[in-house]
Design a protein that fits this description.
Largest sheet of chain B: 16 strands, antiparallel, barrel
Strand order of the largest sheet of chain B: 1-2-3-4-5-6-7-9-10-15-16-17-19-20-22-23
Number of strands of chain B: 23
Order of helices and strands of chain B: HEEEHEEEEHEEEEEEEEEEEEEEEE
Oligomer: heterodimer
Radius of gyration of chain B: 25 Å
Low-confidence stretches of chain A: none
Mean pLDDT of chain B: 89
Largest sheet of chain A: none
Strand content of chain A: under 5%
Order of helices and strands of chain A: HH
Distance between the termini of chain A: 22 Å
């Protein structure tokens, strides 16, 4: 389990040293569909998933508490 | 004993409130420099959804029975810029549902015969979940640091929750790299509702249900060894770490790592369990409970997730997500999500999506009449069973950056409409349609 958790972090940290994209070069990165989060309109969907499924967290949704759910 | 418990809860509330104000007040800058406002205008989001599900593994009736449920949710999120650096957000919502499953907490208060596959029409058929969350964020002058804090309250008929949380975000490397940490505490409490045949096994002046008025079939000497739950509280403590990175001019990714510790009443008091080694008793067509589900009073969860988004060209964007989850109840899970936004016109984007989910069963799960009365922990809640699920979705977004269409003093900035259909290999089917409107007061 530790490997599963640590490996992706190691890869992304390694890749972070590869390039610096300047502000004026971020036109594509700043596209609304490129946001690194769930869409706001999907919030209720994430809530239902947290009610019906055991897994929670690491997605910006509920992580436990706040409802009588799993 | 009760006084001690109340005092302890008050201490926790005071500590939580202090945490909120520490986060809220930290980092006040005094330097006067020109800077772009973090949020130019007040924004109002209206989010609504209609959800329906159907299946035959209702947890209230021990893993078999009608799971029909419908829910309508409406939420307003108002974000107000207090000054150049600070934003106050108020998030208020209500979720109203009807459930065949919970209606069978008392299956004999309707017009028909009690039956796990038929919804009763009693008062437990419907309920609502109400929530209000206030959050505050402060950005530093160079916009490379963000502090945030939030308080939340939510209420259902049998559940109350108080939550407090805070977070800190730091941007580096010309805003190519972002690190964040957040922490949340929820102090929740149940109002204990048991299956009616367990809570009122004899005549009860405070309850309409009187078991002596019914004819018991099967084992007519129904006498369950039921022990009421001693604790009503559920506390959840979570800490999360985030890391995001721009990888190229067209690609960026992020990782999130969440740890959650829960303590207290982690089972649901009205979910029945039937033992294979106990003789069956019935009233009408309904199997009388042998016990309620019993689960450990602690649970530790770990989730690690990653997103990778790629801007293919002016028409297509690829959004991907993966999460691995595990906990000390024996559940491990994988989630994969892929979405392909397609820009059709200046203002319209469609986005088909697919999501795969699987999980292993909790150590304490077994189906209807599969448990033994000698076990310490048991549940027949299929949400804790071994299954996989597929979800297909299709959404359409309308965006007008000039907010030409207006409602009173608000300009309409975007509409997002999405339909998802969800199917488990264990039989549960669900559908949800969501709509989100964003307005800007300029």
């Amino acid at each position: 389990m530790k490997k599963k958790i640590l490996l992706p972090f190691s890869i992304l940290v390694f890749m972070s040293s590869c390039v610096v994209v300047k502000e004026y070069e971020k036109v594509n990165i700043n596209d609304p569909d490129m946001i690194l989060a769930s869409r706001k309109g999907e919030r209720n969907l994430l809530t239902f998933q947290s009610y019906r499924e055991a897994a929670v967290g690491a997605n910006g949704g509920k992580t436990g508490g706040g409802c009588g759910c799993n | 004993m009760v006084a001690i418990e109340i005092n302890m809860n008050m201490n926790k509330l005071v500590a939580a409130s202090l945490l909120f104000f520490v986060f809220a007040g930290y980092g006040q800058d005094t330097t006067q420099v020109y800077k772009k406002r973090v949020l130019e205008y007040t924004e109002v989001d209206f989010l609504s959804s209609y959800y329906s599900q159907d299946g035959n593994n209702a947890a209230v009736s021990g893993g078999r029975g009608n799971e029909e449920l419908t829910d309508f949710t409406a939420t307003y999120v108002i974000s107000i810029p207090l000054n150049d650096d600070d934003i106050l957000s108020i998030d208020a919502g209500i979720s109203a549902y009807t459930s065949a499953s919970t209606s069978n907490i008392n299956p004999w208060d309707g017009d028909g015969a009690g039956d796990a596959f038929v919804a009763s029409s009693g008062e437990s058929t419907s309920d609502s979940w109400k929530n209000i969350t206030g959050s505050y964020s402060h950005s530093s002058d160079d916009r490379n640091e963000i502090w945030s804090a939030k308080l939340s309250l939510s209420k259902e008929y049998d559940y109350f929750s108080f939550g407090v949380g805070g977070g800190y975000t730091k941007l580096f490397n010309e805003k190519n790299t972002e690190l964040s940490v957040n922490a949340n505490i929820y102090l929740d409490s149940w109002t204990l509702l048991y299956p009616v045949e367990l809570s009122a096994p004899g005549p009860d002046e405070d309850d309409d249900f009187d078991i002596t008025q019914f004819t018991i079939t099967g084992n007519t000497a129904y006498n369950p060894a039921f022990t009421p739950i001693g604790s009503e509280g559920r506390n959840s403590y979570s800490v999360g770490f985030g890391f995001s990175q721009i990888l190229t001019k067209k690609m960026q990714g992020s990782l999130a790592l969440d740890f959650v510790q829960q303590e207290g009443l982690l089972s649901t008091p009205f979910q029945r369990v039937y033992f294979g080694d106990v003789e069956d008793s019935f009233i009408q067509n309904f199997h009388l409970a042998d016990d309620i589900e019993r689960l450990p009073d602690t649970r530790f969860k770990v989730a690690v997730g990653g997103r990778l988004n790629y801007y293919i060209n002016q028409t297509f964007v690829l959004r991907t997500y993966y999460r691995y989850y595990t906990d000390d109840w024996g559940i491990s899970s994988n989630t994969v999500n892929v979405e392909l936004p397609i820009k059709l016109l200046d203002k319209f984007t469609v986005y088909p999506s697919y999501r795969y989910y699987d999980q292993t069963a909790a150590d304490y799960f077994a189906g209807y009449e599969q448990h033994l009365s000698t076990e310490e922990f048991y549940t027949s809640d299929y949400d804790l069973s071994d299954y996989s699920a597929n979800q297909f979705g299709f959404g359409i977004t309308y965006t007008d950056i000039f907010t030409e269409r207006r409602v009173f003093k608000f300009g309409l900035k975007s509409i997002d409409l999405k339909y998802n259909t969800y199917k488990r290999d264990s039989g549960l089917n669900a559908n949800i349609i969501s709509v989100a409107f964003k307005f800007v007061k300029d």
